[in-house]
Amino acid sequence: MNRLLLPTRARSPAAHRIHERPGFVRTPERDWSPVPTVPPLTYALELRVLDW
């Protein structure tokens, strides 16, 4: 499975909407926190493999 992962700030609802438009979905199981006060949210987009 090929997917593109994208972290974003939790306090950026405008960014969340931009990520969701092309099909990114929230992946809370992949959320992580590099610094306790900065909890990013992660999004993923499944990539299709094209047969040529």
Characterise this structure:
The chain contains 1 helix and 3 strands. With 52 residues, it is of the alpha+beta class. A 3-stranded antiparallel β-sheet has the order 1-3-2, covered by helices on one side. The radius of gyration is 13 Å and the shape is elongated. The two termini are 18 Å apart. The model has no long low-confidence stretch (mean pLDDT 87).
Features:
alpha+beta; elongated; 3-stranded antiparallel sheet
Radius of gyration: 13 Å
Bin the strand percentage: 25-35%
Sketch the topology as an H/E string, one letter per element. EHEE
Please state the average pLDDT score: 87
- For the record, give the distance between the C-alpha atoms at the N and C termini, rounded to a whole number: 18 Å
Produce the secondary structure layout.
Layout: E1 2-9, H1 13-20, E2 25-26, E3 40-47
Antiparallel strand pairs: 1-3, 2-3
Short summary:
With 52 residues, the protein is an alpha+beta fold. It is 15% helix and 35% strand.
